[in-house]
Design goal:
The chain has a single domain, classed as Roll (Nuclear Transport Factor 2, Chain: A), CATH 3.10.450.50. The chain has three helices and eight strands. Strand 1 and strand 2 form a beta hairpin. Helix 1 packs antiparallel against helix 2. The two termini are 31 Å apart.
């Protein structure tokens, strides 16, 4: 299976809650790092236990997009204004990025970005970022277009 096929199958299995398939696609040394809380999940079995232990049932994933593996894109741009720092977005080779939404059992919605890396025909690591939606501030409405809610 190509890296691109592996990444697509991996993300589909994640979103579908197919833990058995995920277990076959993950490297034995697989980790998932959650930068916002500082936690690192080591091993597929620990990840399944965490996911299945949510009060009220497991969270529900909704696929949005998968990028990388087979495409190469590098963009570097300076940000201006109150925040000024370089931003680099890269994809290709054995790295993939998936965007989606996660609805927790209590109904709370989070946007999710998963960055995965493939090694030896298996996903060896991922970093998962969770962000809650927020209303745009009134002061910048003249400079932006708004997407429909939930996108």
């Amino acid at each position: 299976m190509s890296s691109k096929e592996l990444a697509e199958r991996y993300v589909q299995a994640t979103w579908a809650g197919d833990w058995e398939t995920l277990g076959t696609l993950r490297h034995p040394d697989w980790t998932d790092t959650w930068p916002q809380s500082g936690e690192v999940v080591r091993g597929h079995d620990n990840w399944v236990r965490i996911t299945e232990s949510y009060e009220g049932g497991r969270p529900k994933w909704e696929v949005s997009a998968v990028h990388g593996v087979g495409e190469t894109q590098v963009v570097t741009t300076p940000l201006v204004g109150p925040i000024s720092m370089p931003l680099t977005v890269m994809g290709g080779g054995d790295t993939f990025t998936a965007e989606g939404r996660l609805r927790y059992p209590d109904g709370e919605l989070f946007y999710v970005v998963l960055i995965g890396r493939i090694e030896g025909g298996k996903v060896i690591e991922q970093r998962t970022y969770f962000a809650s939606p927020f209303d745009p501030p009134e002061w910048r409405k003249e400079w932006v277009d708004l997407q429909p809610a939930g996108h």
